[in-house]
Write a structure and sequence with these properties.
Elements: E1 3-10, H1 14-25, E2 29-33, H2 37-46, E3 49-50, H3 54-58, E4 61-66, H4 71-79, E5 93-96, H5 102-114, E6 118-121, E7 124-125, H6 128-132, E8 136-141, H7 144-157, E9 158-165, H8 169-197, H9 202-209, H10 217-225, H11 238-254, H12 260-277, H13 285-291
Parallel strand pairs: 1-2, 1-4, 2-3, 4-5, 5-6, 8-9
Antiparallel strand pairs: 7-8
Helix pairs in contact: 1-2, 8-10, 8-11, 8-12, 8-13, 11-12
Length: 298
Amino acid sequence: MGDVQTIGFIGLGAMGQAMTGNLLAGGFRVQGYDVSPQALRNLEVSGGVAVDSPGAAGEGAQVVIVMVPDVPEVEAAFNGEGGLLKSPGDGRIVMVMCTIDPNAVLRFADTAEAAGWHYVDCPVGKPADAARRKESVFMLSGRPEDKKTVEPVLVAMGEGIIDCGPVGHAAVIKVVNNYMSGIGALVVAEGLRMAEAGGVPTDKFLEVINDTFAGNGHSRMWFPSKALVGDIEPGFAIRHNLKDLDIARGYMIRAGLPDFIASGAVDAYRQAAENGYADKDFSAIYNHIGDVRNEPVD
């Protein structure tokens, strides 16, 4: 068995860097892996230990966290060269914290369990800047005893843990959450542009919308601090939002559900990504809508 004070960490991007920083500040030893040499150097500067493979990240660790972009990267971390699952799990825990397709979560859980690892599904609410401030909220699903084991690790990285039940449930909830958030941002952006077209000042639009049921987190907090003040550097990039909306749309289709809104939203964010906003904040959908002009109809 590994040491619960030693955390293996695979994926040291913006979220991974924020989370490992909090773990190190909380007294954990972090041994991390990333395909980026710069990400490994950043970990070392922060006081962590850089290793050369996912498997090495798991050596001696009771809990190994995976925070990578999508299914292919999880597959590589598990089963690629130097993969984590090539070493016996012996009941240790692998906690996958990225937003991926819920069906893939169940498949990965089966693969991990077959290699002797216990699988915890724990996607993260709120973007990387919130993670740096230790404000993340975690959607946690897995065996009760495994959830208890990882709780101190999560407490070191964030401010809230929501028990979502068995493996897979957290992944579904996170996909729904990101779907609704992405749609909400698009609705606010379109509403802002509609108001502008009618000559309504932005501050008046926000005052009215935020005092009615139409308001949401984007109109109240995100847009006023991001796109509306000219800051579209990514808190959560459009390309990531597009990926999550695409996951949600695929899940709807497989479940036999209509995807009335999802289809349009995927198209809108895909166009924004192609229009140069892929690596900009998802509030930049407002900028994209301003760039795209159709001929007015009387």
